Amino acid sequence: MLTFSIMEETMNKDVLKVLLSEEELNATVDRLATQINRDYASHAKRLILLGILKGSVVFMGDLMKKVDSSIVEIDFMKVSSYGSGTKSSGAVNIILDIQRKDIAECDILIVEDIVDSGRTLSYLVEYLRLKGAKSVRTCALLDKPSRREVDFNLDYVGAQIPDEFVVGYGLDYDEKYRNLPYIGILRPEVYSK
Ligand code: PRP
Q1: C-alpha–C-alpha distance, residues 143 and 141, integer Å
Q2: Residue among 57, 79, 81 whose CB has most ligand 1 atoms within 8 A, to mutate
Q3: Is 64 helix (H, G, I), strand (E, B) or coil?
Q4: CB 182 within 8 A of CB 25
């Protein structure tokens, strides 16, 4: 009862339903960090957590605190998909490239907030492999497998979710709601106005 009333008071009015609460997000990040530490600790010399701006920032900030600090570095890229008119061509445009120049000794773990068509991550994995990274793996907090347009599977997945418009914990609608501490489903009337 108490939990319900707190949720009612703090939930943004544009959010229809909380899909993942703060507690659930914490537990999810803990689980992913445990898997990552287990997989990399024994052999990685230099693990780069590569956050893809902007949506990954909150997840990245929480995840990096829980990954073994003796091997981890952070870096960021920013990309955008572009196309003609309203339909994306699926092409990916690099706006900010990885800063580290020599990545031959680096194990790169790309950190994303969400995977939808799969085009962004499938492009980035190929791009970083061609650039010479020792290894490239992917981690996303959220996965919408029903939206996939290319054959792409994540190495680390927080949660698979249905095809709903989700915001919060870094994810936006029109640059808003990124600071919500939970993942919520946006009310359809907000984006169909
Ligand atoms: C989102 C998300 C991924 C991409 C996933 O970014 O952060 O980068 O879309 O979509 P895909 O699987 O269809 O390629 P967005 O373009 O919304 O930018 P943002 O992270 O700055 O919000």
Answers
A1: 7
A2: 81
A3: helix
A4: yes
Question: How close is the Cα of 43 to the center of ligand 1, in Å?
Answer: 31
User: Does 117 contact ligand 1 (Cβ within 6 A)?
Assistant: yes
- Residue 116 annotated as catalytic: yes
Helix (H), strand (E), coil (C) string for 122-189 = HHHHHHHHHCCCCEEEEEEEEECHHHCCCCCCCCEEEEECCCCCEEECCECECCECCCCCCEEEECHH
The two tokens of residue 8 are: 């009612």
Residues comprising the chain, all counted: 193
170 CB near ligand 1 (under 6 Å): no
pLDDT, one tens digit for every residue, the chain (193 residues): 555 545 555 789 999 999 999 999 999 999 999 999 999 987 767 899 999 999 999 999 999 999 987 889 999 999 997 654 444 566 899 999 999 999 999 999 999 999 999 999 999 999 999 999 999 999 999 999 999 999 999 999 999 999 999 999 999 999 999 999 999 999 999 999 7
Angstrom distance (rounded) from CA 36 to CA 46: 13
Spell out where 21-155 has E strands. Answer: 47-53, 72-82, 91-96, 107-115, 135-143
